[in-house]
């Protein structure tokens, strides 16, 4: 074999070509790959395509010598790679989902769930207990059929009916061996089951004979009833149940992304329709749709160019698209995100139709204005509280939509703080706030000039009090007043005169539009709003005509807490809720005629809230105000109008202890509660309307008095023990209260 000479030039292209031709001569085809990469050039007819691809991949950069050359410039920097390592999420915006479900983090939600479960169990037990005889009759009527069914099932079991399909299959498949094996196995099982059946019948007969011989009659009857009921249960078919349904559940439709997209697409917004027509609907959900209280919450990112305010103003159409009542659908902006982030909450029940929860302070307890006081509930059923100290409040609404009721809730809470001084002026003249008259330092009600003059005089006093308090605070040692404002410790020291001072004016438009006082009222109210919070002065205004003429700009623009119920237009909405509130999607114009007491609350929390104020009717307000007066009598803080120093009518100031002591006739040392309540209503019908033993107990509880069993005689002369009070206990409490009041008055002088 001859030796091939080595190529002295392995990189020579000609040599490579000759070698390729030699190898190709053997019938193969050799592809020549260059040793060095060559630049790819675009075909003459496709220069723009290659240029575009290089531009999109970031290969093209702008060099100084390219200026004016018409070459594209990379304006978007390449996306950074995801950081690798132990902590790849550092520096990225993430949202942590709650570990515990939201409804399990609120005591009220847990209590409501437990109350609902207990109520359902009680109702179901009562429902079925009442119908137990009917259920027994049904079972007895079906027992014959049950006996037949039981015998038939026993016969099928003895005859091994369950294996018949297998034998039939073997016959159809012409599998003789399989059939013979199945038949032999069946014969063996049938023989064993027949023996068991004979033994069971003999044992049952022996048991019946034994029971009939030795068992008592009641046991035989009980066993017979059990047997009849059991056979009736066996004879019951699934389509005819024995028991009926104790409740009929009307479960609302579960909120899904498809429902939300469909409802948004029905709003008639061009950008949404355009986004949905391109295949990708443009509506995304940054978080899962979750259960939130008695409803569903969906976070929605709207298409580009669509804002939440566009959705809010079409709330009725959105409710129609979701097939839910209007009071169940509440779209809100996500104030911590962009303008296109929608928070949609859909409740199970119309907010206006839901049963209102009782006010937490209605039956017991007292308030502290340095802490948040309960005001109402949001659409999720959670308690909403307001911190009145260091703030002012503005309430606005159309007539007959709950404005005065909302104001009364705040004033009752303030009255339950015995250290707070109340100055209330009701310029409508209907007496809606009259239950609080016995707790007020200043009080006036009327639509006349005399009432407006009284309100102006009180505003002048409060405005002058600002200077007095400012000097007093400035003169205090730094350790007593480190922040140069009223603190709970300073307010508790009555001699300093820095107690909370609450001024409330209902229908304030009558004052601010009065031809003689409007300018001065504007100046005084604006000064109180700006300077009063740090000095313990709280101004609460309510109006049913929130416009520029009735509500001065200096007042409306400086109030910290705002509550707006239903209004008709954008101007009224922004006068109460603040400039641009309507533009930002906070629109009280979306409330309907049935949404009484429901409004937007701003300033009480970080974000606007939809709140239904607590409902307190007249008798309940009377009872709460009576308890508030009792707290003030115990604390010795009844002054001014409540103490009889200034009066707007001829009625004397009332004391519940003195009035109860007065209803005892000579020689009576004890009375039943219902007797005392009846005599109070008879003697002072306007002061104690509708008083009951329960109301009487609530009024006397702050004095340490509780009803006890006392002996008495009824109309027939029959003696018996019933709950009531002793005269000595009433008079002792009254004397102690008077001594405390006189001692406090002496200290104040």
UniProtKB/TrEMBL annotation:
One of its GO terms (biological process) is cell division. Keywords: ATP-binding, Cell cycle, Cell division, Membrane, Nucleotide-binding, Transmembrane, Transmembrane helix. Coiled coil: none annotated. Residues 1-32 are annotated as: Disordered. The chain crosses the membrane at residues 195-211, 217-236, 383-402. It comes from the Bacteria. ATP binds at residues 397-404. GO terms for molecular function: ATP binding; DNA binding. Residues 372-574 form the FtsK domain. This is Cell division protein FtsK/SpoIIIE.
């Amino acid at each position: 074999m001859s030796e091939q000479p080595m190529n002295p030039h392995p990189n020579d292209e000609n040599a490579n070509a000759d070698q390729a031709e030699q190898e190709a001569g053997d019938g193969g085809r050799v592809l020549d790959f260059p040793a060095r990469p060559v630049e790819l050039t675009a075909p003459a007819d496709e220069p723009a395509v290659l240029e575009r691809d290089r531009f999109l991949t970031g290969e093209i950069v702008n060099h100084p010598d390219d200026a004016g050359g018409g070459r594209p410039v990379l304006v978007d920097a390449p996306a950074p790679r995801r950081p690798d390592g132990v902590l790849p999420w550092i520096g990225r915006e993430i949202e942590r989902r709650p570990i515990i479900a939201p409804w399990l983090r609120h005591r009220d939600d847990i209590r409501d769930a437990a109350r609902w479960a207990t109520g359902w169990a009680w109702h179901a037990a009562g429902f079925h207990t009442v119908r137990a005889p009917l259920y027994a009759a049904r079972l007895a009527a079906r027992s014959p059929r049950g006996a037949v069914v039981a015998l038939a099932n026993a016969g099928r079991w003895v005859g091994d009916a369950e294996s018949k399909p297998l034998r039939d299959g073997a016959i159809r498949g012409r599998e003789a061996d399989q059939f013979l094996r199945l038949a032999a196995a069946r014969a063996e099982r049938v023989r064993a089951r027949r023996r068991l059946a004979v033994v069971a019948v003999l044992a049952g007969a022996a048991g019946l004979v034994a029971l009939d011989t030795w068992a008592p009659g009641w046991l035989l009857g009980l066993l017979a009833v059990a047997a009849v009921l059991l056979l009736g249960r066996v004879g019951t078919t699934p389509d005819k149940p024995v028991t009926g349904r104790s409740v009929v559940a009307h479960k609302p439709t579960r909120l899904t992304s498809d429902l939300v997209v469909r409802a948004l697409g029905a709003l008639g917004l061009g950008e949404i329709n355009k986004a949905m027509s391109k295949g990708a609907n443009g509506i995304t959900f940054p978080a899962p749709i979750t259960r939130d209280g008695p409803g569903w919450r969906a976070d929605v990112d709207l298409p580009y160019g669509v804002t939440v305010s566009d959705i809010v103003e079409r709330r009725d159409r959105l409710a129609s698209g979701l097939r839910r009542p209007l009071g169940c659908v509440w779209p809100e902006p996500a104030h911590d995100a962009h303008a296109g982030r929608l928070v949609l909450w859909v409740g199970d029940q119309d907010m206006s139709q839901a049963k209102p929860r009782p006010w937490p302070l209605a039956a017991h307890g007292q308030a502290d204005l340095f802490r948040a006081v309960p005001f109402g509930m949001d659409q999720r059923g959670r308690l909403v509280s307001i911190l009145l100290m260091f703030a002012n409040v503005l309430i606005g609404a159309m007539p007959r939509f709950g404005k005065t009721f909302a104001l009364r809730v705040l004033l009752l809470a303030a009255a339950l703080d015995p250290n707070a001084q109340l100055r209330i002026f009701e310029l409508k003249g209907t007496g809606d706030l009259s239950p609080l008259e016995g707790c007020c330092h200043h009080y006036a009600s009327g639509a006349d000039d005399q009432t407006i003059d009284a309100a102006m005089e009180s505003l002048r006093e409060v405005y002058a009090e600002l200077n007095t308090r400012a000097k007093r605070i400035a003169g205090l040692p730094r350790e007593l007043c480190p922040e140069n404002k009223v603190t709970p410790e300073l307010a508790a020291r009555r001699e300093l005169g820095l107690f909370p001072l609450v001024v409330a004016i209902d229908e304030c438009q009558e004052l601010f539009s009065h031809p003689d006082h409007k300018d001065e009222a504007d100046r005084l109210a604006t000064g109180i709003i700006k300077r009063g919070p740090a000095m313990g002065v709280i101004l609460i205004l309510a109006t049913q005509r929130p416009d520029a003429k009735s509500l001065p700009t200096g007042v409306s623009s400086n109030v910290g807490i705002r509550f707006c119920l239903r209004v008709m237009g954008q101007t009224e909405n922004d006068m109460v809720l603040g400039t641009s509130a309507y533009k930002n999607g906070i629109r009280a114009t979306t409330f309907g005629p049935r949404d009484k007491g429901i409004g937007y609350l701003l300033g009480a929390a970080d974000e606007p809230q939809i709140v239904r104020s607590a409902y307190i009717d007249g008798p309940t307000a009377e009872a709460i105000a009576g308890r508030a007066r009792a707290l003030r009598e115990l604390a010795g803080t009844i002054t001014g109008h409540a103490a009889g120093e200034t009066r707007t009518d001829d009625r004397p100031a009332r004391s519940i202890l003195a009035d109860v002591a007065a209803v005892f006739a000579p020689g009576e040392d004890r009375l039943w509660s219902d007797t005392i309540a009846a005599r109070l209503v008879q003697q002072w019908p306007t002061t104690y309307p509708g008083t009951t033993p329960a109301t009487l107990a609530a009024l006397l509880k702050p004095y340490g008095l509780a009803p006890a069993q006392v002996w008495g005689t009824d109309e027939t002369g029959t003696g018996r023990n019933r709950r009531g009070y002793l005269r000595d206990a009433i008079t002792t409490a009254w004397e102690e209260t008077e001594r405390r009041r006189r001692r406090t008055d002496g200290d104040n002088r």
